[in-house]
Amino acid sequence: MQQEQDASISTISTPVVPIIKVEKLVKRYKKAEMNAVNEISFSVAPGSLFSLLGPNGAGKTTTISILTTTLQPTSGSVMIAGYDVARQASAVRKNIGIIFQKPSLDLNLTAEENVRFHATLYGLYPFRPSYKTMPRAYQQRIDELATILGIHEDLFKPVKKFSGGMKRKLEILRSLLHNPRVLFLDEPTTGLDPSSRRSLWEYLSKVRLEQQTTIFLTTHYLEEAERADDICIINKGNIVSRGTPARVKADLVEEFVLLDAEDRSSLLAELQHLGYAVSEQAPFKVLVEQPQLHTLLKSITTPLTLIETHTPSLEDAYMEIVGE
Q1: What is the mean pLDDT of residues 60-88?
Q2: 150 with 185, same domain?
Q3: Of 268, 259, 272, which is closest to residue 304 (Cα–Cα)?
Q4: Which of 67, 90, 145, 209 has its CA 20 to 30 A from that of 9?
Q5: pLDDT in tens, 240-251
Q6: What is the span of the domain harbouring residue 175?
Q7: Burial, 36: exposed, middle or buried (Cβ in 10 Å; 0-12, 13-18, 19+)?
Q8: What is the SS3 assignment for the chain?
Q9: How far apart are CA 294 and CA 288, in angstroms?
Q10: Name one Pfam family in it (predicted).
Q11: In the β-sheet with 284-287, what is the strand arrangement from edge to edge?
Q12: Is the pLDDT at 211 greater than 90, yes or no?
């Protein structure tokens, strides 16, 4: 009996503690008539890929600025890795890596010098005057990341000679140096060619798998957001949709099939008799999800001349909001 009780206790799952928890977050700028962010709440599971989407002016940049401690909230709370962003900003910064849209590199330094000063600033290694005098662990880490990102041969060149894509790669390298628990990526692949984008995402996937790094992404490449475990769409300071990519698409965009026939009156009467929501004009738009489509088609006896399915994409869902 005792063994049965112990076994039942062991099967009870422990609730996952969010790595990021946002509760009723508000930000209102001085002299503004409305909140830039209006009491939004969401949480992010550790080791997940979370994507925050929204049109320009939606509150996306304000939100990520608060989460990365560069902007103070008006009210509400944000916890990252167990630390409060407003009261424990220093501890939060030690647990996060950040890649912003606008480069933050010193153009007068070499690529390696930019990384070395960053490592010193984060307290990862004591400052040394050159790459060769830095600890072996630093050298191995920077060599590994530079090779993956394809800039190993450019490490000791001045950043002012770098292209936009190379600067982005260097910022990515710098942000990953201290193995952050949460990596904030604000449009991370802007300026990268398709091959570099692919290699970056391959490495980020590896980081998530091996180190359980949480990735918080904002992007205009919606195919990148499709990779997310969870998506949050914000508009005019409010969350308008939240969930898996499939859930968000289902919430915002209809799944339907277009049907037509030479005998349109018979087809319309049949569809209405079957109880489906259908448009009055041909080709007939029938609201039906993919699992039920086969059943619908088998039920129709009128010969069809058109069958055209429409499965919503994340871009469709996003445009529903932007289109407002």
Answers
A1: 94
A2: yes
A3: 259
A4: 209
A5: 889 998 888 877
A6: 20-248
A7: buried
A8: CHHHHHHHHHCCCCCCCCCEEEEEEEECCCCCCCCCEEEEEEEECCCCEEEEECCCCCCHHHHHHHHCCCCCCCEEEEEECCEECCCCHHHHHHCEEEECCCCCCCCCCEHHHHHHHHHHHCCCCCCCCCCCCCCHHHHHHHHHHHHHHCCHHHCCCEHHHCCHHHHHHHHHHHHHCCCCCEEEEECCCCCCCHHHHHHHHHHHHHHHHHHCCEEEEECCCHHHHCCCCEEEEEECCEEEEEECHHHHHHHHCCCEEEEECCCHHHHHHHHHHHCCCECCCCCEEEECCHHHHHHHHHHCCCCCCEEEEECCCHHHHHHHHHCC
A9: 10
A10: ABC_tran
A11: 284-287, 256-260, 306-310
A12: no
Contact 183, 97 (CB under 8 A): yes
CB 155 within 8 A of CB 112: yes
- At position 74, the amino acid (one-letter code) is T
Among 149, 113, 151, residue whose Cα is nearest residue 134: 113
Amino acid found at 274: L
Rounded to a whole number, what is the distance in angstroms from the first to the last CA of the chain? 62
Q: Is 62 domain-assigned?
A: yes
Amino acid letter at 115? V
Q: Which two tokens stand for residue 169?
A: 């790669």
Q: Is the pLDDT of residue 321 over 90?
A: no
Residues 185 and 221 in one domain: yes
Q: Do residues 33 and 144 share a domain?
A: yes
Q: How far apart are the C-alpha atoms of 271 and 279, rounded to whole Å?
A: 10
User: Cβ neighbours of residue 303 under 8 Å, at least 6 residues apart?
Assistant: 261, 262, 263
> What CATH number does the domain containing 96 carry?
3.40.50.300
Chosen domain end from 196, 219, 248: 248
Cβ atoms within 10 Å, residue 162: 19
Q: What is the pTM of this model?
A: 0.76
The tens digit of pLDDT for each residue in 24-40 reads 999 999 988 899 999 99
